[in-house]
UniProtKB/TrEMBL annotation:
PANTHER family: NAD(P)-BINDING ROSSMANN-FOLD SUPERFAMILY PROTEIN, RETINOL DEHYDROGENASE. Residues 208-229 are annotated as: Disordered. It comes from the Bacteria. This is Short-chain dehydrogenase. One of its GO terms (molecular function) is oxidoreductase activity. Signal peptide: none annotated. The keyword Nucleotide-binding does not apply. Keywords: Oxidoreductase. InterPro entries: NAD(P)-bd_dom_sf, SDR_fam. Belongs to the short-chain dehydrogenases/reductases (SDR) family.
């Protein structure tokens, strides 16, 4: 099997990479760091860095993955950032949390879709607190993060209308730099989320499901609203200057 996993350098992604390594599967890992360490020479690891804050880097990452494999059994979109303390917009006018956590994985998925059997989008239960109209609301770090994750869940439901085996999930409340950047709470170890991700990645023939850890759960109703999905996709296609289907 070939598995693509983004955000594999720290936290949940790192624990997931370590769990999957050694299975004999070809792991194509991504992170922000220039290199990745701590794997055995026997593990089949390919590593590509890319900053999701730059969509040109996401395009380059997709091209490098396509050159490395002609089949992806599971694409796990895990990389994400917390919202910064103050609203931050990049040179293209895009809010940086939305770009890194939503636009970048959507672009990567679109570029790899024809090779991919199953897509697992790592979202967050915080998406339940957002609405797709939140973009114009007063800024907060957690609000920007939750909005980006609602967009990712709604995109997953939209894509599931067009093809099979696209799911999204909440991996658990996990003690990582991302959690602690936004919330003063404790969490389970990253290995707990890694086991949940491996479980969801290994399911077959389910489609459009939102998992709360390992249990199918109801996502934010807006994610299931076809009109809301279509409006989101229209905005996404404009931001990415790309047809998603
Ligand atoms: N922790 C939780 O309680 C929790 C709860 C719900 C959902 N989640 C989701 O679980 C996933 C993993 O989160 P985590 O808690 O493990 O966070 P984390 O420890 O901060 O790891 C995030 C990963 O994403 C990468 N990343 C961050 N910014 C990036 C950028 N601009 N370009 C490319 N890669 C970037 C990081 O790279 P570096 O190592 O180089 O920074 C790292 O590999 C995320 O999708 C998160 O939203 C987490």
């Amino acid at each position: 099997m070939s598995i693509v996993l983004t955000g594999a350098t720290t936290g949940i992604g790192r624990a997931t990479a370590r769990l999957l390594a050694g299975s004999g599967d070809h792991l194509i890992l991504h992170g922000l760091e220039p290199t990745i360490s701590d794997f055995s020479p026997d593990d089949r690891i390919t590593y590509f860095p890319a900053d999701f804050g730059d969509l040109n880097e996401v395009e380059r990452l997709a091209a490098r993955i396509r050159a490395a494999t002609d089949k992806i059994d599971v694409l796990i979109n895990n990389a994400a950032r917390p919202g910064p303390p103050v609203r931050t917009v990049n040179a293209a006018g895009l809010e940086v949390t939305f770009q890194t956590n939503y636009l970048a994985p959507v672009l990567l998925t679109t570029r790899l879709l024809d090779l991919t059997r199953r897509v697992v989008n790592v979202a967050s239960a915080t998406h339940l607190s957002a609405t797709l109209g939140d973009a114009g609301r007063p800024y907060s770090a957690a609000g920007a993060y939750a909005y980006s994750k609602l967009a990712l869940v709604a995109y997953s439901c939209w894509l599931a209308r067009r093809r099979t085996e696209v799911v999204s999930m909440h991996p658990g409340i996990i003690a990582t730099p991302l959690l602690h950047a936004m919330f003063a709470i404790g969490g389970d170890p990253p290995e707990h989320a890694a086991a949940n991700i491996r479980y969801v990645a290994s399911r077959q023939r389910d489609n459009g499901t939102y998992y709360d850890e390992r249990k199918p759960a109801r996502p934010n109703p807006e994610a299931l609203d076809r009109g809301a999905q279509d409006r989101l996709i229209e905005l996404t296609e404009r931001d990415l200057d790309l047809e998603l289907w």
